[in-house]
Amino acid sequence: MILYYDEVSPPVRGVLLAIAALGVKDRIKLEYIDLFKGGHLSSDYLKINPLHTVPVLRHGELTLTDSHAILVYLCDTFAPPGHTLALPDALTRAKVFNMLCFNNGCLFQRDAEVMRKIFSGAITDPTQHLKPIEAAIDALEQFLQRSRYTAHDQLSVADFAIVATLSTVAIFVPLPADRWPRVCEWFAVMEALPYYNDQNRVGLDMLRKHLAGKIKL
To answer: Coiled-coil regions in this chain (predicted)?
Structure first.
């Protein structure tokens, strides 16, 4: 099994968190693709993923090019019965899928839109472009009013996907506890995970350095 990655990418960091939580890092070969040097645009990589994105997971004849599909596949492949990340029934799977779709279709897309504008030089002050992201965090606050974690009362891969995105958003979007108390509470729980720093914060800090030359932090 091979994971093509660059930890500056939020979707990659979500997958790295899941790999750490499942304890299977020694079973997955990591192949670094340097996004800021255009590694994702090389002819060899485009043969693997014509979408020129990371992460990509290859396992035998299977190639997955979406981080959320990778997260589900990792659960189905490595999470034993009773593991907090296991998807043992249709109800659990539906709840986790629902929040993965929230990240993929809403929170991450709104973050990515602002990031594209920053790195293209279209904007240098993202504060005028935050309303869609803030609306997505408003929705996340409501979801977290219903359960301890984003999908249900147990940690799931949806939490990894969302915290990787939200921690990226938090580089330029303040997260006041008076507006989003449950989001901030949940975020603190995620930051306290023993593998959070190595699998998310390191890549986040790398991204922050790249952003420092583009916007005022």
So the answer is: none
Residues with catalytic roles: 9
55 assigned to some structural domain: yes
Closest C-alpha to 15, from 197, 166, 199: 199
pTM of the model: 0.97
End-to-end CA distance of the chain, in Å?
A: 38
Helix H or strand E encompassing 56: strand 56-59
Q: Express each pLDDT in 157-171 by its tens digit.
A: 999 999 999 999 999
* pLDDT of amino acid 217: 75
Cα four-point dihedral sign 72, 74, 78, 79: negative
- Flag whether 117 is in a domain: yes
Structure tokens, 159: 């939490």
Number of domains observed in the structure of the chain: 2
Are 195 and 201 in contact by the 8 Å Cβ rule? The answer is: no
- On average, the pLDDT of the chain sits at 97
The helix/strand/coil state of 24 is: coil
Identify the H or E element spanning 68. helix 67-78
Collect all residues with Cβ–Cβ distance below 8 Å to 46 and sequence separation of at least 6.
52
* 8 A C-beta contact, residue 198 and residue 205: no
Q: Which domain holds residue 164?
A: 90-213
